[in-house]
Specification:
alpha+beta; Arc Repressor Mutant, subunit A; four-stranded antiparallel sheet; Jelly Rolls; 47% helix; 22% strand; five-stranded antiparallel sheet
């Protein structure tokens, strides 16, 4: 399943440092749960699946499913709950269950580094945490798609482009001018960015903007036009069209489902 078909929403995130042992040998959770190990090792069991995990491994458990675990050495790990915005088929869901191995450990370590720097749940921290979770899933999908063709070589120019897009996502931004500033044609820029991050610059930009739009739909009473203005979209109509296409439901429906 290509990453463009994966849409997840972060529910909670806790970082545990040097945890000697789990409080319970088995537990269940109401959401999908991700154990992302930064240091140390533990053994786990999910139904009939069992194994050992350490740095470079994700262990994902579906909701309402017994999660057995025991530390082998002190653990430092990220503990995340998430939900699917587009519910996967049973076959797809099974491919996201159990241990997933990440080869690009440099990019993974970078995600962990930034997750640790975002302890709060203010708007900016939440947006960045959501992006880190999405990128972690992207790593899995990217390595599944390219398998042995994938290398960990970093495209410095595209990292620069991604940073620029992240810093200017919610204002007036021209991808054409960005490509020219990088010394590339728009086609070259799109191909090279997709090769580096498995999505086009416009897809990456929309992902950032839609993450902020979801946050504002959940936590404010702003009109759709006002939310569009805060997220870099031209107007509420265009935001509604992109939101419905990418998230699978209209903004009004999303707001009614996720607002408390």
């Amino acid at each position: 399943m290509a990453f463009r078909d994966v849409a997840v929403k972060l529910i909670s995130h806790v970082y545990w440092h040097h945890k000697e042992e789990f409080m319970y040998n088995e537990d269940t959770y109401p959401y999908w749960t991700l154990f992302a190990v930064e240091k140390g090792r533990f053994v786990y069991g999910i139904g009939e699946q069992k194994g050992e995990a350490g740095f470079g491994d994700f262990v994902i458990c579906p909701p309402h499913t017994g999660f057995r675990r025991r530390t082998l050495e002190p653990l430092s790990f990220h503990f995340l709950h998430f939900v699917w915005l587009s519910e996967p088929s049973s076959e797809e869901a099974s491919s996201w269950r159990g241990k997933l191995v990440i080869k690009d450990v440099e990019r993974l370590a970078s995600n962990y580094h930034y997750l640790k720097k975002l302890p709060g749940w203010d708007e900016e921290s939440t947006l960045h945490k959501q992006y880190m979770l999405s990128d972690m899933f992207r790593l899995v999908a990217m390595e599944r798609e390219y398998k042995d063709e994938l290398t960990t070589e970093t495209d410095i120019l595209m990292e620069k482009a991604r940073k620029y897009l992240s810093n200017h996502a919610y204002g007036s931004l021209s991808l054409l001018h960005l490509a020219e500033s990088l010394g590339l044609t728009p086609v070259q820029f799109t191909r090279r960015f997709r090769r580096a991050f498995t999505q086009t610059p416009s897809e990456f930009l929309n992902e950032l903007r839609l993450t902020r739009a979801r946050h504002l739909l959940e936590g404010s009473t702003l009109t759709l036009d006002a939310i569009a203005g805060n997220c870099g979209f031209e107007n509420g109509f265009y935001l509604s069209r992109v939101f419905t296409q990418k998230i699978g439901m209209a903004p009004s429906v999303y707001r009614s489902m996720y607002r408390v």
